[in-house]
Specification:
307 residues, Rossmann fold, 2 domains, five-stranded parallel sheet, 9 strands, globular, binds phosphoric acid mono(formamide)ester, binds norvaline
Length: 307
């Protein structure tokens, strides 16, 4: 049996494959928008395992699989044996014998790696504490749609150096752009945890205004990610000066776009006038989760296709 191809972090795909994926995304998106039936994954089954909450990830994977002609099954920790201590390796053996592809949202990256190493079918990371690669596929596709190639551009990341930030940093190495990161003291990027090859593609700034200066894209995320709720009170205090507001957007380039993976907290990490303003592309960004993930599932199951 051939070893399946997994997507556990962004750098699991090389640049050429990511470019291919974006080219397929354009085709698949156009077919969807023009109501053309496209069922390359007929009779294939996606299993989605959620150990954390989700709206976009569940919806985009489930709808996406149906739109490609397949079906999707939702499992969560609460009402499966996963929540009662069944070893992840055993779950992987069983689930991957009954399905064609698996998407997992969980806590430590190590969990998804253990699952993948015992899976007969491709495994996709739908968010871990460390990474959110499907999100960044959508974000980069969205940037390219709005502004063209991202190579050589500057992305400002304001706030927590979390799973989404780590994945932006991996993307910067692959696509050759720069990330200017500003976090409160004590929340800085850890290059090893981010899975980086080096430090050439990012710079850390104490002042978020400095990070935003001349950026082509300004982006942020919640101050408290899922799994870190116990730190919420402390984080509300620590991150108070790291809100993306209109003044910060004025420091960026005049044609800079604003992104947020969502869900957002207006009045915390982003001001309403920014996320609801003219530079915000958050709804396109959310929609593109659907299209890039359809291309991803097609690639992991069928390889490169021509039609
Ligand atoms: N951005 C994102 O992954 O959203 P959900 O948590 O709703 O899936
Ligand atoms: N960083 C956030 C992203 C949610 C989509 C979290 O992990 O909760």
């Amino acid at each position: 049996m051939a070893t399946p191809r997994h997507f556990l972090q962004l750098k699991d795909l090389v640049r050429d494959e990511l470019d291919y994926l974006f080219a397929r995304t354009r085709i698949i998106k156009t077919r969807f928008k023009t109501y053309q039936r496209y069922w390359p994954l007929q009779d294939r089954t996606l299993v989605m395992i959620f150990e954390k909450a989700s709206t976009r990830t569940r919806l985009s994977f489930e709808a996406g699989m149906h739109q490609l002609g397949g079906s999707a099954i939702y499992l969560n920790t609460r009402d499966s044996q996963l929540g009662r201590g069944e070893p992840v390796e055993d779950a992987a053996q069983v689930i991957s014998r009954m399905s064609d592809i698996v998407m997992i949202r969980t806590f430590e990256q190590e969990i998804i790696e253990r699952f993948a190493s015992h899976s007969r079918v491709p495994v996709i990371n739908g968010l871990t504490n460390e990474y959110h690669p499907c999100q960044i596929l959508a974000d980069i596709f969205t940037f390219i749609e709005h502004r063209g190639p991202i190579q050589g551009k500057t992305v400002a990341w304001i706030g927590d150096s979390n799973n989404v930030c780590n994945t932006w940093l991996q993307a910067a190495e692959i696509f050759d752009f720069n990330v200017h990161v500003s976090t409160p003291p004590g929340y800085e990027v850890e290059a090893e945890r981010a899975g980086l090859y080096g430090t050439d593609h990012f710079e850390q700034f104490a002042d978020p205004m400095d990070a935003a200066r001349n950026a082509d894209l300004v982006t942020t995320d919640v101050w408290t990610s899922m799994g870190f709720e116990a730190e919420n009170e402390e984080r509300l205090r620590d991150f108070a000066d790291w809100q993306v507001d209109a003044e910060m957007m004025r420091a960026a380039k005049p044609d800079a776009v604003f992104m947020h993976c969502l869900p957002a907290h207006r009045g915390e990490e982003v001001a309403a006038e920014v996320i609801d303003g003219t530079q915000s592309v958050v709804w396109d960004e959310a929609e593109n989760r659907l299209h890039v993930q359809k291309a991803l599932m097609e690639f992991l199951l069928l390889g490169r296709v021509n039609d």
